[in-house]
Amino acid sequence: MTKEATSGRTVHMAIQGYEGSFHQEAANLFFKKNVTVACCDTFKEVIAAAKDPARTDGCLMAIENSIAGSILPNYNLLQASDLRIIGEVYMQINQNLLVNPDVELEDIKEVHSHTMALQQCYEYLDQFRWKLVDADDTALSARHIAQHKARHIAAIASKLAAELYGLKIIAPKIQTLKNNYTRFLVLRRKEDLGEAMEGDKASINFHTDHSKGSLAKVLSIIAREEVNMTKLQSFPIPGTQFRYQFHADMEFEQISDFEKVMEKIKPVTTGLKVYGIYKRGSWK
């Protein structure tokens, strides 16, 4: 946890999506609501805003989902950004059916939301003969029905979107798969950070050569130490003939345990980079 998350200082963080998005909900969780957001259309814009001290203090970015898996383009953005991970948030994604305060279920004729949100709620939506309309963003759909005081249109979005836009949750948690979690990374500029004094999780990136058992050597070193590798993700290295780089997340009891592992894998890796040492997130 960062000083800002506990001291009451408000930070300004870039997020993908509009006000009321799940990214903003995750930012509120991490910073205990001591946060304002700079809304961006794309994750590439999020990273650009996070790198600019005149615009933000950093960013919060989704990195993987318990159903859809890793968001591979965001790992590439992380690698190229030179930003540092200072924390993570695991948040359950609850999709809610939102309407204006005077609207009832029988008034609804259309439901608007991002296509992925609609797909996540098909089992509930199939009970009705509503027209389903794809939108650019869940929170934007909520904002539109509030602005237009729509009486026959509902939106699928977050609880926060309902609160921000004065909407009624007419049906909560309508997603088909209830155990749907997204992991978000909290990123800051390295020049704004001091040396990591506490933490029990780290994220790294490294390359191995084509020699036989090169990756196995790295994994065996990690396995022998008091470190638990919770994720290993491979990516092709651009411009090479099928050489790969690897992203790894590791959990440990003492930072010294992690530092020992890093010293031992240096001789059998290249391009070894630490994205950050931070406190592991809890499941919200």
TrEMBL record:
The record, for SUPFAM superfamilies, names: ACT-like, Periplasmic binding protein-like II
Point out the annotated site residues (description: Essential for prephenate dehydratase activity): T182
Q: What is the lineage of its organism?
A: Bacteria, Pseudomonadati, Bacteroidota, Chitinophagia, Chitinophagales
**What species was this sequence derived from?**
Niabella drilacis (strain DSM 25811 / CCM 8410 / CCUG 62505 / LMG 26954 / E90)
Superkingdom of origin: Bacteria
Question: What does the entry give for GO biological process?
Answer: L-phenylalanine biosynthetic process
- Protein name per UniProt: prephenate dehydratase
Enzyme Commission identifier(s): 4.2.1.51
**Pfam families (alphabetical):** PDT
Q: Which pathway does it serve?
A: Amino-acid biosynthesis; L-phenylalanine biosynthesis; phenylpyruvate from prephenate: step 1/1
Q: Which residues does the UniProt record annotate as the domain Prephenate dehydratase?
A: 12-189
